[in-house]
Amino acid sequence: MQAEDRRNEASPVFDNLDVDLFVKVLANTAFSPFFVFFIPLFYVFQGLKVTHPVVLLWSAYYVAISVFWFVKWYSRLYRNQGSLLLGPGALDWGEQIVVITGGSSGVGELLANTLAVRNVYVVVLDVKPIITENYNIIYYKCDISKWEEVEAVAKKVFNEIGQPTILINNAGVVQGKLILDLAPENIEQTFGVNTLSHFWILKAFLPGLIDKKSGHIVTVSSVLGFTGCAQMSDYNASKAAAISLNRTLRWELDNRYRCPKIRTTLVCPAHINTSMFETITFPSSAIWNFFFPSVQPVTVVKRIIAALDEQHSQTIFLPFFANFTPYVDHLPSFLRDFVQWLSGADYAMSNFTKTPERRGRELDPNPMEMGSKED
Q1: CA pair distance 373, 194, nearest whole angstrom
Q2: Where are the chain's structural domains?
Q3: Residue tagged active-site, from 62, 235, 257, 347
Q4: What is the pLDDT of residues 362-373, one digit of tens each?
Q5: pLDDT, tens digit (0-9, with 9 covering 90-100), for 277-296
Q6: What is the overall mean pLDDT for the chain?
Q7: Residue 59 has pLDDT above 90, yes or no
Q8: 20 SS3 class
Q9: In which band, very low, low, confident or very high, does the pLDDT at 84 lie, cut at 50, 70 and 90?
């Protein structure tokens, strides 16, 4: 049964209600210094003394969350070469040229069309053309797993459009096979699209960003790069490699190329409701859907554009539970196995099949499935 169908079996009460909504509400209320600041004042205005235990308790809580948010805020400013009071300025979208790999479908397609509305040039690199009416989107056929093709297309981009300022490595492919069922060409394709293409895009376009000492590089990876699951060995390993590449890129930009103003954003989503993983199986329980919701493509696109607007290097985890995936392996082994069982990840791919559209793409002379990183 398809993932979307399984989720539609849940109670209507939970259709638009999940833990992420609660987290957003709490972040702006119970965990917001601005909101909590008024609680002890409320008790004082009601006649309690400043030394009353209730007032002291709420005051201590206010101080605690204020310190937490201050450290997080200042750490972010420091990481992005800001100051205690001033961060990076707003991004001037009128001067941007964006390169998106795998921009003809899924999250990449939505992102390309959304950015084009901002009147910026969007260069889509894919083996299949993007269907769009936006004149700001320029498509180049390119097998990004091959350095020769990326190098040739990069020269065309420089000559016909200009030096890109934003690079979004978004293309992805999934095989959905057990380790022993993977053919050598399957493994080569997965790493070619999911990992090697990142190196080729950087080799082609990063020198121009270094010359200007500014720009933004977005790496779309996956939570599976931290945790992994059965029947996804090549995919998991390729995503882990992309995460490691993003880290190393940050250190090299800061300490070797001396270009701290070139921002790097890592995007690690869980399952996204797109066609790449359309046939995976999830538990149909409303409670499970509440704590482990899928992510809508528009949510991913909004977060990526927000990161570009903010000009802050950052790591984006979607949805909320994905924030805990980097720490799962630090749990005792019996708890780690329990979390793996609870997620159902090892059996989600049991009935996986590629959609007719994606099977058709394998008949292309360049048999790649270019799309979003849909986990």
Answers
A1: 9
A2: 20-80, 93-347
A3: 235
A4: 434 343 333 444
A5: 877 888 878 888 888 899 99
A6: 87
A7: yes
A8: helix
A9: low
**Structural tokens at position 257:** 């190329």
153 within 8 A of 143, measured Cβ to Cβ: no
Query: In whole angstroms, what separates CA 316 from the centre of its chain?
Result: 6
Please give the Cα distance from 171 to 168 (Å, whole number). 9
Q: CATH for 93-347, among 3.40.1360.10, 3.40.50.720, 3.30.420.40, 3.40.50.10260? A: 3.40.50.720
In 3D, which of 134, 131, 217, 241 has the Cα closest to residue 169?
Answer: 217
Reported as a single tens digit per residue, the pLDDT across 301-325 is 999 999 999 888 999 999 999 999 9
Residues 76, 42: contact at Cβ < 8 Å?
A: no
235 is catalytic: yes
- Alpha carbon distance 33, 63 (integer Å): 8
> Any bridge partners for residue 218, and if so which?
168, 265
359: exposed, middle or buried (C-beta count within 10 Å: 0-12, 13-18, 19+)? exposed
164-184 residue pLDDT tens? 999 999 999 999 999 999 999
Residue 102's contacts (CB-CB under 8 Å, 6 or more residues apart) are 108, 125, 126, 144, 170, 171, 172, 193, 370, 371, 372
Instruction: List 167's β-bridge partners, or say none.
Output: 99, 217
